[in-house]
Amino acid sequence: QPSAKREGFVTVPDVTWADIGALEEVREELTMAILAPVRNPEQFKALGLLAPAGVLLAGPPGCGKTLLAKAVANESGLNFISVKGPELLNMYVGESERAVRQVFQRARNSAPCVIFFDEVDALCPRRSDRESGASVRVVNQLLTEMDGLESRCQVFIMAATNRPDIIDPAILRPGRLDKTLYVGLPPPSDRLAILKTITKDGTVPPLDIDVHLEEIAYNPCCDCFTGADLSALVREASVCALKQQMTMFSPANKNVYTGEIRVGKKHFEEAFKKVKSSITPKDQIMYGEMRQSLNR
What we know:
- By secondary structure, this protein is of the alpha/beta class.
- It has helices at 3-7, 24-39, 41-46, 65-76, 85-88, 95-109, 120-123, 134-147, 188-198, 213-217, 227-248, 265-274, 281-294; strands spanning 10-11, 54-58, 79-84, 113-118, 155-161, 179-182.
- It has a six-stranded mixed β-sheet, sandwiched between helices.
- It is elongated and about 65 Å long.
- The two termini are 42 Å apart.
C-alpha cells in the first residue's frame, strides 16, 4: 500500500452544511469549537477563550460523522487530511509510529488544517498495565503529537468512533480530544431533512405526486434508520422504478421508453421490504446507554 495513501492526502472537501441536512445541535457545537476560532480569532483572544484541542464524534455508523468533519473543513476554508485508523497500522516495528508523525508533520506544513481520524478506536485501543506492544507505542506517539500544542499551530484534530468505550482514556483528557459530541440516530424530523437533502427536494430522483417524504420519514419502518440507511432506501426505490420501466419497455416488446422515470409510492413500499435498519436492537440499546453516559 503506498505510504501517501496510508498517511492521508491533503484535500479541500466539497461537502457543505447543505449536504448534511440535519444534526443542527452538533453543527452548532462544531461551529463554536472550530469555525468560530478560525473566523474570529481576535474575539476569542479578547474573551480569553481557548478552542478545544480536539473533537471526538461518537455514535452509530452511517449517521454523518465523516460528512460533518468534511463540512467543518470546507466551511472554515481549512485543508483536510482524512486518515482511517487501521491504515496507519503496520506490521513492521516503528512504521506505525512513523506514519503518525508524518500525518502531523504534513498537517503542520498544510496549516490551517483539520486532521480527521476515522475509526480512531482501532488506532488508540485501551491500554492495559501489562501491555507493551505495538499498539501502546502508537498510542504514546499519538499522545506526544497531540501534546505538541505550540508546534501544532492551527492544526485541529477531529476523530470519529462507533465505540468510545474502548478508546484509551488518555486520548480523551483535556488538551487532546477534550470535547465529545454524540452523533446519533436521526429522529423523524431529521429523517425528513435528510430525505429532502438526498432527493434534492424530490427532484433527483424525480418523485411521483403520490410520494410524500414526510410520510416516509415518520413511517415506523424508518425507526432506527441511519442517514446511510435512508440513502439506501431511496436508491432501492429508484432501482425498483427503473426495473419496472425496463420490464414494460423491453427489447422483446420492441418499445423504448424515452420519457422521465418517476419514483412512486409503490416503489418505496417495495424498497421497505428489502432495506432494513443497519442498527440491530442490541446495538440500539448499546448506543442509548452511550448517549446517556456522554450526556452526564
